[in-house]
Amino acid sequence: MAIGLSIIIVSVCFVGFFLAGIRIVRPVERAIIERLGKYHKFCGAGFHWIIPIIDKIGKINITERMADVEPQDIITKDNLNARVDLVVYYKVMENEDNVKKSVYNVDDFETQIISLAKTTARNVIGDMGFSDVNNKRNQLNDALGKVLDRESDAWGVQIVRVELKEITPPEDVQETMNRVIKANNEKEAALDFATAAETKADGVKRAAIKEAEGIAKGKVIVAEGEAKRIELVNVAANKYFIKNAKKQKSSKANKILAADSRVRRIYLELRKTQEFSPDNLIHPKYQVLVKVLLDELHRNSDARVLVFVKLRNSVKNIVTRLKGVKKIKPVRFVGQATKS
């Protein structure tokens, strides 16, 4: 019975000893086991067992983390006091060598990274003018990241990126910058307005040109139509005059002057004009016709003019006006009894 009790006690102690040595390493961790104060082995993710009391395990997080560097005042190259606030993203590289470096080469790598970031920022920004610091943030971030990554390599730490959260200039400089930004915005707005006005003016100009071209083409078309119409009128007048001239039986007619294109055109238009009446001697086209006839007779006093009209009541008035012109021979009007 004493033997059985001893076995139970030993079994319980063994189970307790075994359970005390179980260690689980998560996927986002890596571990180092030390035995009697010395490095023993590297452990990846999974189940591990150590000898209680003799072995000691240390776990290292290998995920990306952020170190928030407290704001600090930095004097730039142009002697301006800028307040700089930045953050550093880093992680411990997961292979055995780098995990060992993060444990044995540095006491607290996160604290060291923050201190190194402050020093590096003062050195890099101190060699730049404030305008470059403010306008070239991406380049400044890259420069800080490269310096920090190079310095932290001995700690087994990788600097993923550095970001400048805020760069605050002195108050008077900030006011000046605000005025400059406002002026630039107003300048851009003025340029946009000028561009829009120019575009609108070009559009109006092109529209005016198109309209003028359309009007010019319309006038050309109207002129061509008028010329064609006059040509047709002249042809019709020729036929009319020739036809009626053949009906003349007078043997005394030495010369027949068929009225020129103006007379013919006006004559035919008189025939088509509804406003014209036989007694309306003040009609504009009637007056023009008479003037043209008189001018023609002045130029050719030997001519006999045959005017084919149906103005029986008004022919005597035309005759009267024609007889008043010297050196003009008698005129015969169709539709009226022949008179010398």
Fill in the keyword field for this structure.
Tetrahydropterin Synthase, Chain A, 3 domains, disordered C terminus, three-stranded antiparallel sheet, alpha+beta, 340 residues
The string of secondary-structure elements, in order, is HEEEEEEEHHHHEHEHHEHE
CATH architecture of the largest domain: 2-Layer Sandwich
Q: What's the number of domains?
A: 3
Radius of gyration, Cα only, in angstroms?
Answer: 58 Å
Count of distinct strands = 11
Low-pLDDT segments, ≥5 res: 248-262, 273-282, 301-316, 322-340
- Helix content estimate: 40-55%
Output the number of helix runs: 9
Strand order of the largest sheet: 3-2-5
Shape: elongated
Mean pLDDT: 72
What is the terminal separation in angstroms?
Answer: 182 Å
Query: Strand percentage, roughly?
Result: 15-25%
Q: Can you tell me the CATH class of the largest domain?
A: Alpha Beta
The CATH homologous superfamily of the largest domain is termed Band 7 domain
Helix/sheet category: alpha+beta
Protein topology:
Elements: H1 2-20, E1 22-25, E2 29-35, E3 38-43, E4 46-49, E5 55-61, E6 65-75, E7 81-92, H2 96-104, H3 109-126, H4 130-135, H5 137-152, E8 157-168, H6 171-247, E9 256-257, H7 261-272, H8 284-299, E10 304-308, H9 315-323, E11 332-334
Helix pairs in contact: 3-5, 6-7, 7-8
